[in-house]
Amino acid sequence: MNTRIKDIISRIETSSVNFRQIFKVVSNKYFYISLFCVITGVLMNFASQTYLHNYISAGKTLPMLSDLILDNLPVYNVSIVYDIFCLIPLALLLIYLIDKKEFERLPFLLLMGGFFYIIRGIFIVLTPFGNPPMFNGSDAFFHGFANFEIGVYPSGHAGNVFMILLLVRDHIYRILIGICLIIVIVALFLAHGHYSIDILSGLFFSYAIRSFGDKYFTMFDLSRQGAINK
Hints:
By secondary structure, this protein is mainly alpha-helical. It has helices at 2-26, 29-57, 79-100, 106-126, 156-167, 171-190, 196-216, 222-225. Helix 5 (156-167) packs parallel to helix 7. The radius of gyration is 20 Å and the shape is globular. The model has no long low-confidence stretch (mean pLDDT 85).
């Protein structure tokens, strides 16, 4: 009985430490800077999509490109697949943070995701390609951006999942997220959701942003700074 009581007390103490870690993270200035970065990235993507939608509504057109893979691949209505398997890694990332108690890395993770979407929001306007031929849009279950599914370079689906893969450290989680990435890429090709260059650039952009972050924004990873007392 004494051993069982000690075990319960130990779990409570461990839980309190976790809550203290979470509190220190959400009270840190880097958390709010990174959160602002994420919100900015999301808003920039919506603004860019809206700009391109209005551009088309004004009677102008966006060029469609030839693609070695898509030009020789029939269209399959599997857009719901890449939408679902783009969301699963987000859930796995949340589980990973809780499971490995890496709450102090949250500002860095948010910052990297925010950087990706800020850059994507810029590039989809700088390189305003039209959607690939015969692309039917997202599944009605997700609705996507509705009339605003415009702007393809780089791929947010592929880049987002690959960014999560780069950020997690555990081998099992990396395998699961890697499987999701493969499914997303295959589904994007089958649905003609992105050109080949969009998908590849999404991967390269994510890798470059993560490398840039590791070099210049280590202060956002509070675990490296010893800001969280474990």
